[in-house]
Amino acid sequence: MSRIVKAVVATGKGEPVRSHDIVVPDPGPGEATVRVLASGVCHTDLHYRDGVIGDAYPYLLGHEASGVVEQVGPGVHHVEPGDFVVLNWRAVCGRCRACRRGRPEACVDDHTASTRMTLVDGTPLRPALGIGAFTELTLVHAGQCTPVSPKADPAVAALLGCGVMSGLGAAMNTGGVTTGDTVAVIGVGGVGCAAVAGAKLAGATTIIAVDLDERKLCHARALGATDVVDARQTPDVVAAIRALTDDLGADVVIDAAGTPETWRQAFYARALGGTFVLVARPDSGMRLEMPLLDTFLRNGTYRTSWYGDCLPSRDFAPLIDLHLQGRLPLDHFVTERIGVTEVEQAFTAMRSGDVLRSVVVFD
Description:
Layout: E1 3-10, E2 18-24, E3 31-40, H1 43-50, E4 59-60, E5 64-72, E6 84-87, H2 97-100, E7 118-119, E8 126-127, E9 137-141, E10 145-147, H3 154-158, H4 163-174, E11 182-186, H5 190-202, E12 206-211, H6 214-222, E13 227-230, H7 237-243, E14 250-255, H8 260-269, E15 270-278, H9 292-297, E16 301-304, H10 312-324, E17 336-338, H11 343-352, E18 358-361
Parallel strand pairs: 4-8, 11-12, 11-14, 12-13, 14-15, 15-16, 17-18
Antiparallel strand pairs: 1-2, 1-4, 2-7, 3-5, 3-9, 3-18, 5-6, 6-10
């Protein structure tokens, strides 16, 4: 039976988000409804609001979420009502070439729910990243539900759904950081700080955090950075990273800022033959010009990291377990807990750098 619930909706480019009544129908085949317990406020939600990602308004915002499965549709077997889950925006298909080759984290045929949630007047909603979690109840593809330990704080578990997983995975999966590596992370907001935490968990011995904001550098230190570079006070970031790595450069450099300037810094701060990972999403208008000879002479690996190259069914539950064991301080990323009516204020705090994550918590 369909239910009417309150939700945060973006109705036009750049317009403040507002609370609206929406209709959540029963799940169809392969789908599930989830009672949302917590949902992080991510830059991607702001991109939807501001038209950076698309213009197919109205958007039901929120995608970095945890909750409890309420109902499942026909053909759903891996989750059942009552399961505590983290929602993910990559439900792999199991049929494409990447899946058949045993690389489902590179699936190109991900799934979202076919049944549509709507405004009460019948206008179809586009859920952010196929989830739409700034609401007490949402409808998703069942493959977007990943069971984890119910002992976890919902506000903490939710953040694995996007930004924190992107950063952890950039270091551990895409960058392949291993014991004894030297790592530099340029841009230590939420994703960059998660990359720092991932590098520490993977056994890196030198972890260098670079940012313009002293507050973010303090967060990075708390999460495992052994050294920091304040880019406001340092005219040559590349030289600073090299000075901290015996003039060799870092084995792995992660660009979590995503500008042409930070791209060049990451490229030249990388050790010869090392790995450079771009995890930040650049704006569509950005352009980069590089000497082609330098890309040849410096050798090594350049990779982009999409969702931290994670496979939710493989990665989420073990990471939550590591957190519960005290080995991964995911709780550090929760700066504030807010109500669902405070999302617009959370966007302001995000833009000013006042938070790693604001998390909407539902009673």
